[in-house]
Amino acid sequence: MRLSDMGERAVVSELLKKFGIGDVDDCAYISVGGKILAITSDTVGVETHMVPGASYADFGWYACAVSMSDLASAGAKPVAIVSNFTLPPEFDLGDTLSIAEGVNDCARHFGCRVVGGDTKEGKSANVGITAIGIVDGRPMKRSDARVGDVVAITGEIGRAYSAILKIREGVWGKDEVYDVMRPMPRIYEGIKLAELAHACIDMSDGVYISAHYIADASGVGIEIYRDDIPLCDRIMKMCEKGRASIDDALAYGGDFELMITIPEDMVRDAMAVLDTLTVIGRVVDKNLGKVLIVDGEKRPLPLAGYEHFKHGDKGGCKR
Amino acid sequence: MRLSDMGERAVVSELLKKFGIGDVDDCAYISVGGKILAITSDTVGVETHMVPGASYADFGWYACAVSMSDLASAGAKPVAIVSNFTLPPEFDLGDTLSIAEGVNDCARHFGCRVVGGDTKEGKSANVGITAIGIVDGRPMKRSDARVGDVVAITGEIGRAYSAILKIREGVWGKDEVYDVMRPMPRIYEGIKLAELAHACIDMSDGVYISAHYIADASGVGIEIYRDDIPLCDRIMKMCEKGRASIDDALAYGGDFELMITIPEDMVRDAMAVLDTLTVIGRVVDKNLGKVLIVDGEKRPLPLAGYEHFKHGDKGGCKR
């Protein structure tokens, strides 16, 4: 069977079985000298992930930020980056070094550094970043949500999607490019939340699918109150004018915010530490399923998010 | 400037400067909880690294073995593998799982496991393996050779090159495919040697270039006695019949053996532990340069080895 007949999630599921990995998470964990290391790896491609107007340095930042965000979801402090370049022979040296500069800037911004890597020839230009972080205490995982937790998220949603829409419409500037290509992973927030929250995931694949991932990994149900999800000004205005839909924005993702589940009596403490936190739902019994509540009315939580191998129109950028 | 105008080594050198990495080695090192972690990452491609007749499981083994061999050169015990797949949408699921099986078999053979990874769409099928190992004591590095050390290598040279020649000649079987695609990294030997040796490198890029790497990284000269280098039976016979040249075999590499430098008075101890060790040269003052001695006659040590971006004929397999 061709991978395109299956989609990324089914392929990954088969690979996990083959590798005997039971606990799917944004990071893998190994224990070394009494510390827990969180390890995560992601590959991004110039062709699939660069929006028009983005520089190669923006692309490098993005490549590194994707993995940083996975460390953030674990509550890990980044310590080292390994950077793997696959580049076509005709690729330009200056562009290569610009990508490296973007990777480097992002790594250093979060207090870690590139310690090694690999450079190989390939048909398309890809950057694979493996990030290693140290968890002080217990890592947050997708699978740790418990019935009775509330669901909360950091920041606002829709910045990346509204930027993509403006780029598609052909009227955009550096702000929009930065909103897509220069995300700011919630490393600080992740470390703070790890002391209080149960489950955590980064929402780069979208709000809806992230809630599905937490519910499935934890064996629980989930209720999301759509009206409580904070949207950024730009997407709100676009929705009001009928140029965008809230559901599309929540499915699209790309904002690199964190979704956590946290005991109800801890959420006040968390908000005292982080003023960007908003409660948007709660964890319920598995039998109650995965539900989206809009205007007090229950709907099935949309199973929508970006998926590799299984799409016709990539829209110029994964998210 | 296009990467193909420069070659892999010049590109990597520019990238290292950009990342501020001074000490080039097969592995990067980070210190965690009193332990030294060795981290290495390599990407291999179906199109560039698979020989005719090889299975996808062979390719998966090879992909993992490349990184395992880098851990071996550090004297590290492998603990975890992160496996990143880049695959075209039309790639077959069964073939994907065969690659995974090969990766898995190799990881488990060396007592470690695949803990995570990433699967992305790309134009060509590539597997990037990041391997993490623990060094008990001091890691061996390319840069630790000292004047007065002898140069020694594990095993025999030429197995992979002679197999490639037979494959090119069109007369070969499973043995030749295995000699290229199923190398057995010297993990056990690396751990043993780390207690005694100074510098170490894996010779997957060839004997000659490996000696250059050690000399350059350590700021020393090196003498290699070509006549003392143990060659495998098959390449010896091919050389006798004029179907191959010793210099080509020593430049080609692909054998995943280790080259070490070790104090002369330690080499007997090392040989007592490892019966596969052969002295093939010595470390000399930098002013004496890099020299190959053949029939008692001094020649410049050939600067020959495989290099990405800079070749016309890949010969169907990196090595």
Question: If you had to describe this structure to a student in words, what would you say it looks like?
Answer:
The structure is a homodimer of 319-residue chains. Chain A is an alpha+beta fold and 319 residues long. Chain A folds into two domains: 3-135, PurM-like, N-terminal domain (60s Ribosomal Protein L30, Chain: A); 142-300, PurM-like C-terminal domain (Phosphoribosyl-aminoimidazole Synthetase, Chain A, domain 2). Helices cover 35% and strands 26% of the residues of chain A. Chain A is built from eleven helices and twelve strands. In chain A, the strands form two sheets. The first copy, chain A, has a seven-stranded mixed sheet, with helices on both faces. In chain A, strands 1-2-5-3-4 form a five-stranded mixed sheet. The interface between A and B is large, with 72 and 72 residues.
In short:
The first copy, chain A, has 319 residues and is α+β, with helices and mostly antiparallel strands. Chain A has helices spanning 8-19, 46-49, 56-74, 93-109, 159-169, 174-181, 187-193, 207-218, 233-240, 246-252, 267-273, and strands spanning 28-32, 35-45, 76-87, 113-121, 126-135, 149-154, 200-202, 221-225, 258-263, 277-284, 290-294, 297-300. Helix content of chain A is 35%, strand content 26%.
Helix content of chain A: 25-40%
Spatially, the strands of the biggest sheet of chain A line up as 7-9-6-10-8-11-12
How does the major sheet of chain A shape up? 7 strands, mixed
SSE string of chain A, helices as H and strands as E: HEEHHEHEEEHHHEHEHHEHEEE
Individual helix count of chain A:
11
Please indicate the count of domains of chain A.
2
Report the CATH topology name of the largest domain in chain A: Phosphoribosyl-aminoimidazole Synthetase, Chain A, domain 2
Average pLDDT rating of chain A: 92
Structural class of chain A: alpha+beta
Task: Characterize the overall form of chain A.
Answer: globular
